[in-house]
Amino acid sequence: MSNFFKILLGSCLGTAIALIAMFFIGFSAIVGLASSGEQKPKVEANSILTLDLASVPELTGNAPLDGGFGFDFDTDEVVGLHDVVRSIEKAKTDDNIKGIYLSSMTNGVAYTSLRTVRQALEDFRESGKFVVSYAPLYEQRAYYLASAADEVYMGPLGAVDFRGLGAEIPFYKNMLDKVGIKFEIFYAGDFKSATEPYRRTEISDNNRVQTRQYLEGLMKYMLQDIGASRNIDPAQLRTYADEITGWKDQAAVEAGLIDGIKRRTEVDARLHELVGFDMDQKLKTIDLQDYFEARMKKLKGGGSSEVAVLIAEGSIVDGKGDLGAIGDKKYVDEIERLTEDDDVKAVVLRVNSGGGSASSSENIWYAAEQLKAAGKPFVVSMGDYAASGGYYVAAGADSIFAEPTTITGSIGVFMMFPIVKELMNDKIGINFDTVNTARNSNAFSTFRGLGDEERTVLKARTEMIYNTFLQRVADGRDIPLGTVKEIAGGRVYTGERAIEIGLVDRLGGLDAAIRSAANLASLESDDYSVGHYPRIKPPLEQLIEDLLGEDAAKGFGNAALKDQLGEENYEYFQLIRETTRAQGAQARMTEMVKF
Length: 595
Fold this sequence. Notes:
The protein is α/β, with parallel strands linked by helices. It is built from 22 helices and 22 strands. The strands form 6 sheets. Strands 9, 12, 14, 15, 16, 18, 19 and 20 form an 8-stranded mixed sheet that branches. Strands 7-4-3-2-1-8 form a 6-stranded parallel sheet, with helices on both faces. A two-stranded antiparallel sheet has the order 5-22. The longest helix is centred in the first third of the chain and has 35 residues, at 2-36. It is globular and about 85 Å long.
């Protein structure tokens, strides 16, 4: 009888929760449908475009939804990097836009993407319109963007957190030893450092060398960019970073890092002055999302001559993949569709990925080879990262473009196999016994150590996948295999260095890659359309699918974790989770640049 009541109560509770969820989903749907019938946002005369870039995916809308337990569902799409740039370019010639106001004190945008936005702001300034930045304090990423403004102001008692680039790598081996978990690790490449946190307690010499080299490469451009905008010698800027000058009261003003310390009311008065308003007139502002909706359209291609841009960002995973991930099933389907579409004359794969599943990388690489076999030019544009599996999918391209600050290479493979025998036996008191019908029926069990035969198989498999990776690079780049082995080994490079060693063809952004693809397809300038893929479902539709589909619980759990851990700590959690959950051989890099 007691079980009956438990089942009854559980059923009632489950039904109640489902009804509550359906109510809020239905309410959100009604609100969403009602708002969809409203007119587009209006750009009034003498408006200021406001930018507060908390995060910027490559593709508009391609960001995981973070609807938590509060049912605070935001149905606006996050504007993607390339649409952010297009919007700023449009605002440059828009008579209703008088200037841009930056209000970010922190942001989660990676270095190369931030540099792309920064370059767009510098171009905007050439129109004679103003760019003003204000924040109570500046975290380093936010300051790097803000330094492109004509005028940079900080609030009272604030700080400019400008102290150079660094890499901070957590190591888990001691913790794993204490709880009784051991990882059997197989890797190919002396510089393939992704497994170090699970087998070492500090950075290896090889990893320290390569990390310092690529960080110095990025630092060079950061100093050059800030120095040019603020009229400060890069060598002097490095001194300011060494001495954390931005933290020392008025020193940030005296050093020229910012133009002054103001309260919000004083900045408001300055904006009134720049627009030509009296103080009793209300400023007219429009945020980036509303401006994009009012003035811009997504690039959907069309016509008989199209250059398709397939944007691949996030970890490379098996299957369909979530928003912000590169699922091999979804991307193979996309490439096959573009291959069969006679109106698509060329394809640009925009890669922003540190890699992931080796098997999935191979599947996407093969689909790209079939695209080339169909006679369609295939060009790659690299974003923040195109490393490990991210380089694998790019290796066969007709031409590869990278930004000078792109992080690429990391041509290596690893496999990690967790052993929880000590945890189960000694810590918890659970033992396992086996019955076999063949010598290896119970092989590769996480509950006992690997035998010599199992280790031999996994080591051989790792080497086989690595050799396949090397061959893909050698064939795609037309480089002798011996040369590829010399520059591979899991070593990481900047885009600037990658050109020197033959992994990349040219420095340039997405627009340059599109022009190259059009030229390879013999398309005349302005005689082709550009489409961005994959198509992203509207946020409300995606939200309902997430809530009612198999990923609903995962979506709620992720939102709760992010709320509790904070954005930066959640990134470390994701890194650990993705690495430890990975199935099979992995071609990924796991360093996190402290920017």
